[in-house]
Structures are given as C-alpha cells and as structure tokens.
Amino acid sequence: MTSARIKLTMLILSLVLQFSAAVVAQENFNGPPIKLGMSTVLSGPSQYLGQAMSRGIAEVFSRVNSEGGIQGRELELIIMDDAYVPDIAAANSTHLIDQEEVLAIIGNVGTPTAESVMPVVASREVVFFGAFTGSNSLRAATDNEFVFNYRASYEQEMAAIVEHILASNISPRRIALLLQADEAGTLDGFGRAGLNAARTALEAVGFRYTDSLTQAKYVANSLETGSAIIEVLDASYLPEAFILVGSYQPSSHFIQYMHRLYPTANFYNLSFAGAGALAASLQEAESEQALDFGERIFMTQVVPPVDQELSSLLGDLVEREAYFTAQFFVAALGSIEGDITRASIKQAMNALFLNSTADAAQNASVIASSANQASDYVVLTRFSDGNWISVQTD
Predict the structure, then answer these.
(1) Tell me: the pLDDT tens digits for 15-55?
(2) Burial of 336 per CB tally in 10 Å (0-12, 13-18, 19+)
(3) Among 3.40.50.150, 3.40.50.720, 3.40.50.2300, 3.40.50.2000, what is the CATH number of 3-152+311-367?
(4) Which of 13, 22, 23 is nearest to 340 (CA)?
(5) Per-residue pLDDT, 371
(6) pTM of this prediction?
(7) Which fold has domain 154-301?
(8) Domain limits of the chain?
C-alpha cells in the first residue's frame, strides 16, 4: 500500500471529523429525532457482519447525541434484521421508509440485499448510503442517483489480489475461484460481482481466459462447501491460488479443507468475508486442528488494518468501516443549512460527492474518486497470529 493511499484515507477521515466536530458542539436543543433506517443481517451465517456494522454506526450516533445531536435533534437508528435475504431486505426498507418515516437508509450488508433495496429507495427518493459491498451495481451513478458508497469497489480489491498473485510468480492459469450462488447454482449478486471483478483485473494484466478457470460455487447463507471442493478436485489443472468470493464461515471451512490438499497454494479473500470473524475462525483451526497456514492466507481491506497507527479507532475492521461510514454521513447532515429532510440529505450528499459547493470543491481530490464512491483505499493483508498484517508491495 502506497503512502499516498494512506494519506488519502487520513484526509477523508480528517474532513469528516472537522464536519462532525462542528455539528456536535451544541447543547440543550430540542426537536424531533432524525430517523435513519438500517436493514442488515443480524441472524444466520453472516450475522457477524451486520452486528459489527450496527455497532460501528450506533457508536458514532451515540457520541453525536451525547454532545447535542445535529441541529438539536437526536439521531435515531432503527435496525431491522433481513437475515441476508434480498426479499426481506426490500420489505424491511419499504417498512422503514413508509411506516417508520426514516429520512435515509444506511449500512446495509451484502450485494444481493443491496440490489433489492435500490429500486425501493429510487421510487421513494430516499438516500441509500454506505452499504457493505463493493459491487459495481451500486456504483453506476447515472442509474442510481440515490445510492452513495463509502468503500472501495471489488474491482479495486481484486486488482490488488491479482497484483500479488503475479508478484508471487503464480500464473493466472493456476487460479481457481470460490463464488457465492443461489440454491439453483446460479451466481447471486455477490458471486457475479466477484467474478466480474476478477475478470476485469485479469484482463487488465493481459489474461483473457477467466471463463476457463475453475469456478466452484457454494450456496449463500449456508456452510456447505462440499460441492465446491469436488468442483476444484475435478479441475484439469493444479490450482496455486484461490480467490474466495464468500462470507467468513464458508470461506474458513473451504480454506481449512483445501489447505490440507494444496498446502503450497495461496488463498485470497475479499474484505466482505469479515476480517475479525475470519481471523478468529482460522486461529481456532490452527489451535484445535494443529493447522499451520504459514503465510498463505490473504485478505483485502478497505480501511486501515490493525498495524496502522489509528489506535483511537475501533479494532474490528468491519466496525471501523461502519465508523468511517457513519462519520461521513454525519458530515453530510452537519453541512445542511435549514430543515433536514430526505431532499436536503440528497442535496448534501451530492455536494460532498460531486463538489457542488465551495467548501467541498477544495477537497475534490480527497472525496470524489468517482461520482458516488468516497474512498479508494485498498490494502492487501496477510493472516498472522490471529491478525491481518499489511503486505508491503512498494
């Protein structure tokens, strides 16, 4: 990770802290709460992700409220469990907007669920910010004018993975992929996003045969990876690098089994796997099953990992991302002059992302890496002693 990218993220953090400091320096104000909605996964195999996102956002809102709120109004976060099921996420978001009358939706977890929410917010003209996904389906700003992202894209994460694979003298022809699918075996939104990101990253280095690579599948919201393992064993080549597009539990199960069969292969995970939960699972496997992963488990991160000097921030990387996301959203709310409404929140987000105000214009190189994505920060990390340590590529 280059020092320029680290500085970029710190500049973003500095900007949102400046905004939030300005908006919370109020006391003894009264007014109706600013209701914000969150449909996320609080149950099932991926529950750690939704719980961590909820905690990180709630911590920021609690701090803001303890110091006076925004325009004297309390931030109220209404959270609903969607169990990582797209139809439930859409129904939750409809309820939050129509019945709870929230002013924005924040912090969803997952590509399939986020894609189901997009038409809901578009039809009701409500901002949808900070989903825990790097899918490009949320980054086509001309199609999704109410969708705004904090984190880097899966294409950016996959570019870092492919760079390391090549630097490790592994041929792209020796890559195998684990992809998330539905019960019919068709790639879901996350699986498609991961495959497309891999294809883009590989084509960027001149490899145009992604479809010839083994694409093993597991079913979303399940722990069953047996069929995926069989697909790899049936491959016509010996994989030397596995790219995992999955959540933490199936990814951990897959790694533990395949490492025994391919002890010299590298395993690469996208940030969606959930750094803390995946690390805990791998560490438990090393302890209880006497496994030694060596230095062969990698993961991309979209916020600075634990070895960066950010001791004042949360240690769990998913919570840390939620913290950054909420800080950025607070910055948008704090920039609003006049009534805080669905429309004024949309205008404030546009001002930050598209630099349509004088205050944001001077920070153009900091914020607007693309029309609706705040941060380009990506770093590749390696699993070591229960933590994720930055891999130096400079």
Answers:
(1) 555 554 444 444 555 789 999 999 999 999 899 999 999 99
(2) middle
(3) 3.40.50.2300
(4) 23
(5) 66
(6) 0.87
(7) Rossmann fold (3.40.50)
(8) 3-152+311-367, 154-301
